[in-house]
Amino acid sequence: MAIISHGALSPWPWISEQLSDCTIRGVADRAGRLGYLHDRSPDGLPGDEGAFLLCSFWLVDNLISQGRLGPAEDLYTSLCAHASPLGLLPEQIDPSTGTFMGNFPQAFSHIGIIVSGVNLARAKAGTTV
């Protein structure tokens, strides 16, 4: 997602934009509200994996960059709703139960919520993201 969002896949911007659009639509449409395809990304380690929140925030940023503010805001709101009573976020969330997984609290998740929140606010205000 990070590579796609920065257009690093092709020296021709229009190809990167088309590839980015198709990839993000595929992930967002098939992966559900946390943007995670567990069956498509096994790591070979025992135990279940959760959705990495930072990657989910990257999905928010990509949706914003495509001008899809409605789905971006819906996903952002859904992710924010997972915060603990103290407003802290874990590293991962189980997509089916919402259970916190991995490190808690996780700085990367908090960086994601801040950056995506700023990007969303700028996009809604019509300023450059």
Explain this structure.
This protein is 52% helix and 5% strand. It contains five helices and three strands. The chain has a three-stranded antiparallel sheet. Helix 3 packs antiparallel against helix 4. The protein is globular and about 40 Å long.
Count of discrete alpha- or pi-helical segments spanning 4 or more residues? 5
Kindly name the structural category.
mainly alpha
Read across the widest sheet, the strand sequence of neighbours is: 1-2-3
Order of helices and strands: HHEHHEEH
User: Uncertain segments of ≥5 residues (pLDDT<50)?
Assistant: 1-10
Question: How many beta-strand elements?
Answer: 3
Overall geometry comes to: globular
CA(first)-CA(last) distance: 17 Å
Mean of residue pLDDT values: 76
Biggest sheet layout:
3 strands, antiparallel
Q: β content, as a range? A: under 5%
For this structure, the quaternary state is single chain
Estimated helix fraction = 40-55%
**C-alpha Rg (nearest Å):** 15 Å
Features of the shown structure:
3-stranded antiparallel β-sheet; 52% helix; mainly alpha; 3 strands; 129 residues; disordered N terminus
